[in-house]
Specification:
The structure is a homodimer.
Chain A: E1 17-21, H1 31-35, E2 39-41, H2 43-46, H3 52-59, E3 65-68, H4 76-79, E4 87-90, H5 100-106, E5 109-111, H6 114-134, H7 136-144, H8 147-151, E6 164-168, H9 172-181, E7 187-191, H10 207-212, E8 216-219, H11 233-239, E9 244-247, H12 256-264, E10 270-273, E11 292-294, H13 303-321, E12 329-331
Parallel strand pairs in A: 1-2, 1-3, 3-4, 4-5, 6-7, 6-8, 8-9, 9-10, 10-11
Antiparallel strand pairs in A: 5-12
Helix pairs in contact in A: 6-9, 6-13
């Protein structure tokens, strides 16, 4: 160990600095295991009474690596306080909360944790779809209100087999969704930025065309400027009054006001929503609808996937400090 | 067409008699399409003010075929009124409501509609499992009560991948369940009356041993004298406090009183129940549990499977009257 520590390394520890960027209300439950390998700089733990930006300016100027916890916004203003930053390790699947343009301009590498969460997200998409079609949550509420005995059978749902399922975004999550839905007898098609050469499913370059040829749309794509409100009223209209939309991506993929109107007016068959435009607020009009399943942004989260995310984050940080290739790169530095 | 009609054939019509046996409250929605091929004898339509048994004695003595709608009991006493009966076509997957011993003694063939319903039942079993593990119905209730904004995140569930799933009864439904769960990354094992020679999954001759080696039990077997209360307290205990039971078979496969106690005492991790011992009554203690998903005996039912059941029933009746082989035989005559 050199007696003259590297910049961005706590003197005497030999462990490189890693800045933890998080909402004050967000836990960072893996601190202990991270501290075995890195010197953790965490404003909310190290200096809770100081404004976070002041802490960053004072203490994090030499930090080369930042872990961005969950959807904590990382705007250009914050990045400007970190002149030595070379890598942003995101712990969520989406990275729309990170100013990717500024990172690209600065040559900062960005990774996400999509690989750790993809299976859980795909499981949840299938579960939401089954729930909407077969009306399970609604039937469960019906029983708990004692209505089976009182009012008799609950209305039937629909069979999953034979449904034409359009997957919007055939990345990690979308591919896992497709693999899971095939044994149910669904006909899969997809939309994506580009056609996947080795993919056996029909490709539609436009979401409108995919919707015209689908009974169900499952949204698994990233939220970008291009995909903001990509599910607009016109797409809902062509999907039709038996059509179902499942969203495990981000709330703003859908024009939520139009979604609520389509559902209230019976112009859309149903929806399974894990994400909303203004979480944890959500349109109260949905609370009265039995053809809608609501979920508090947790498709990707299980204890098992948290553990996979922890392992991925540590291995990516180790790779960075050893000049080895990073996993799950969103963009190269 | 002979001028002297066959016994059990309405004079002049040429269409053979088919007796419809149903609870008065049960619809028989396919009457019209059946009447194209058969003369339907239905006490509740033909003679609603006459006791059903009197109608059978007076009118159905020559009937060779009976369609048993849903779980309408068909005991020996009713069978005795039908001396010419040669076939019972069940329209449900289970046939525990039919006196199979009496049918066997009389040489009456019995068929079920398992093939028409197996995919829906398997879909529902997977859906219930995902719901219990990921706590979707419970999270949906939490949101509808406005608690996301008020109390923050809802507790996490568990990942389906990697779970050891023991299927009890690897028939039509169980095989479809296994096929669906494999892409989720589950480890499948099974219990059945006998080992299936060409099946790749580990076989356990005892349910106790299957439970000891499983995180989840999915009940897809028929209810018989041997399987009554086959899930007893001991099986629940070895399954353990993280273990989950899914039942899409019949309520009495489980000792329901013991199930309620195991769940209330936290000795079992969760349950997804489509069936109960005394439907539509059910243990009210379950209403307060968030690790339980309740469903009003509808795993097998969608409009699509109703249509498949209608086709199977008509084709089996036609086969019977043409002396051709029957599908979905429970027992030969």
């Amino acid at each position: 160990m050199s007696s003259q520590p590297e910049p961005g390394t706590e003197p005497g520890s030999g462990r490189p600095d890693v800045l933890v960027h998080r909402f004050r209300s967000f836990d960072f439950p893996f601190q202990a295991s991270f501290r075995d390998h890195f010197t953790i700089l965490d404003p909310w733990t190290d200096s809770p009474d100081e404004p976070a930006d002041a802490f960053l300016a004072r203490r994090a100027g030499g930090a080369r690596a930042l872990v961005c916890v969950g959807p904590t916004p990382l705007p250009a203003d914050t990045l400007r306080l970190l002149p030595s930053l070379q890598v942003v390790i995101g712990t969520s699947a989406g990275v729309d909360h990170i100013d990717l343009r500024e990172c690209r301009r600065r040559g900062i590498a960005v990774t996400n944790a999509g690989a750790a969460f993809a299976e859980d997200a795909a499981d949840y998409a299938v579960a939401l779809l089954l729930d909407v079609l077969r009306r399970m949550s609604a039937a469960d509420r019906y029983l708990r209100e004692g209505l089976w005995l009182k009012n008799g059978n609950y209305p039937l749902g629909f069979k999953l087999g034979g449904k034409r399922v359009g997957i919007v975004g055939l990345g990690n999550i979308g591919s896992h969704v497709a693999k899971r839905l095939q044994p149910f007898g669904c006909d899969i098609a997809y939309n994506s930025r580009s056609k996947k050469p080795s993919c056996p499913f029909p490709y539609y370059a436009s979401i409108h065309d995919l919707a015209s040829n689908s009974d169900v749309l499952i949204l698994c794509c990233a939220l970008t400027e291009e995909t903001h409100h990509v599910i607009n009223r016109e797409v809902m209209t062509v999907l039709g009054d038996r059509g179902v939309i499942i969203n495990v991506g981000r709330g703003s993929l859908i024009d939520e006001k139009e979604l609520v109107q389509s559902l209230l007016q019976g112009e859309l068959g149903g929806a399974g929503l894990d994400v909303f435009e203004d979480e944890p607020n959500m349109p109260k009009e949905l609370f009265g609808l039995d053809n809608v399943v609501l979920s508090p942004h947790r498709a990707v989260i299980t204890p098992e996937s948290f553990e996979a995310m922890r392992e991925l984050t540590i291995s990516n940080l180790k790779a960075f400090f050893s000049n080895e290739p990073l996993s799950c790169l969103v963009q190269h530095k």
